[in-house]
Amino acid sequence: MSVNRTAASAPPPVEVPRGLAGVVVADTEVGDVRGLEGFYHYRQYSAVELAQSRCFEDVWHLLVHGELPDARRGAAFAAGTAALRPLPDAVRAALPAIAAAGGRSGPLAGMRTGLSLLGAAQGFGPVYDLSADQRREDTLVAAAAVPTLLTALYRLGQGLEPV
């Protein structure tokens, strides 16, 4: 039996302005930098004003749900994400080895490994196979665990126990 092979053909190159000025790579509703105007925003709210007037969880709610929460919804979101912060036992058990392997690179070097282990322990699937609700939930779990993971790796790197 004979198999014919064909050469893969690449699409022709696209001409773009030098520096990619004015080139749209992806559309987003989440944020943008309008440098000439001096405006950096999250969902059309000034990032500077948000940082000055809202708590971290309120801005996180804005990014995830598309709107700033009222006091009740903000408190519920903060409580819900706080409940997601503890690390699974399998991840926690691996942290000393991850911290030791990071050496002089510090805790951020171990973050990739820790997040990969978290995804495996939580059973995260490929993003493209998930419903919007499952993607949102997995994202919240991963993002909520980052402070716990980072501080644990830092403390272990300093010879201290994680809290």
From TrEMBL:
InterPro entries: Citrate_synth-like_lrg_a-sub, Citrate_synthase, Citrate_synthase_sf. One of its GO terms (molecular function) is acyltransferase activity, acyl groups converted into alkyl on transfer. It comes from the Bacteria. This is Citrate synthase/methylcitrate synthase. It comes from Streptomyces coelicoflavus.
